[in-house]
Each structure stands twice: as C-alpha cells, then as structure tokens.
Design the sequence.
C-alpha cells in the first residue's frame, strides 16, 4: 500500500522540492499552503505522515499539531523549522511532533527521516489497534475505527472527516456495536440492548437499521468492511483490514 504524505508548507519552492522528491521515492503527496488547509486535509485524508512547517499563515505548526492530537489523530508529524525560528524542541515534542528537521535540509535527509518515522509508526499502530473507546482530555468518550470517528456524547460521527447523519436509534446502534467491537451480536441481543424489547420482537427492524448504517460508512454495502454479517447469528463490528 502506498503511503500518503501531507506536506504543509507555505514556501512554494520548498513544497515543490519535497513533493518532487517524495513522489520519486514512491509516496503519494498532498500539499497544503497554510495551517488551516493543512489541518483540514489531515482530518479529511488521514495521511500516513505529515511534514509540517512551523511558521505558517493562518495557524502555525504548533497549533496544527496540538489540534490534531486533541482530536486523537495520531498521524506521525515531522516538524520543519528554520534556523532562526524560536522553536522549543521540547514543547514541540510534548505537543505531539515525532521528529523535527531544521532548514535547509537535503532531500536525501528528508527521505531518510520519513522512512524511519513511518517504520516506527507501523509498529505502534499495531499495538494501538485493539483499543476500544478513547477518552479525550475533557473526559468525553471517542471511538476511532479505521476512517470512522464517533463522539457519543455529542451525537456526532465523522467518516474520513465528513459528518454523517443518523437517526437517534441508528446512532445508538452504532455506539453499541462499537462498544462490542469484534464480538458477534445476535439480532435479539441488539433488539433488547438498543430497542429495549424484552420479548422476541420483529428483528427486521435491526436489519433495516444496519443497512442504513452501512449506507453511511461502507464504501460498498455489499462487501462491508466494518459491519459484518455473521450468517445464522447476527452482526459483528470489525476493524477494517489494512492492505
Ligand atoms: Ca513557513
């Protein structure tokens, strides 16, 4: 799978140079010219790595970095700084940058760092994969599975950065599935947990809601990556397979 790298850099010559060299090395490259655009693209495309300039129009690199980490987006970040920038390395690393480089740098140096950071992040992604709900700094719960991010307290869900629309029951069902990730749930179980039916009700209502959920979060509802049908049993929410 090709890794995608987001370059957030307002100096056109540097952005172009990085883009050229990264593409030559086989990466997909996205370019943003200011901090706001960088943030938007990072949330929308969830790149594998971000090269983030420190001094940027609209929002500086530190703010972008902080904002991404607040949203629990753990994409590795290499901060690009100029010699004269008053960059506090310790603070930068505390805010969530993984590494930093001081300009001017050679393309070869950048590629070596990119490779090293990507290698490290692969290892930590595998370790982090089996976690359920995260807790944000303000105590709010959040789920992140693949491209899906759900904030149950806010009745909000995003898929690849785009807001989704649900009925309250669909949302409740989604959160219940997330809470029971990787577990097979029967239609009766779902009916009793989400609809509070304590008798054998019509389970078709479950199927209808599942199909609405799939319409929103599956690229192809016939080949779902997240909400799997377990024949003869019910449904299971899974982490989508990478590669
Ligand atoms: Ca700059």
Sequence:
């Amino acid at each position: 799978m090709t890794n995608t790298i987001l370059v957030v850099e307002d100096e056109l010559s540097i952005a172009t140079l990085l883009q050229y060299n990264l593409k030559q090395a086989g990466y997909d490259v996205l370019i943003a010219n200011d901090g706001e655009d960088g943030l938007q693209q990072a949330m929308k495309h969830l790149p594998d790595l971000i090269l983030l300039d420190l001094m940027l129009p609209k929002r500086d690199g530190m703010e972008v970095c902080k904002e991404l980490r607040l949203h629990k987006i753990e994409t590795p970040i290499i901060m690009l700084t100029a010699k004269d920038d008053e960059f506090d390395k310790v603070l930068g690393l505390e805010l969530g940058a993984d590494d930093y480089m001081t300009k001017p740098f050679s393309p070869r140096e950048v590629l070596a760092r990119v490779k090293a950071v990507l290698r490290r992040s692969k290892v930590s992604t595998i370790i982090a994969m089996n976690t359920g709900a995260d807790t944000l700094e303000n105590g709010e719960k959040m789920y992140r599975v693949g491209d899906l991010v759900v904030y149950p307290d806010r009745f909000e869900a995003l898929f690849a950065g785009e807001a989704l629309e649900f009925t309250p029951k669909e949302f409740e069902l989604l959160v219940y599935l997330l809470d029971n990730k990787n577990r097979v749930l029967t239609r009766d179980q779902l009916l009793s947990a989400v609809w509070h039916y304590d008798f054998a009700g019509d389970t078709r209502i479950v199927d209808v809601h599942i199909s609405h959920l799939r319409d929103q979060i599956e690229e192809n509802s016939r080949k779902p990556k997240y909400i799997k049908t377990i024949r003869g049993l019910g449904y299971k929410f899974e982490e989508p397979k990478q590669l």
Summary: The chain has a mean pLDDT of 86. The longest helix spans residues 107-128. The chain has two domains: 4-121, 124-237.
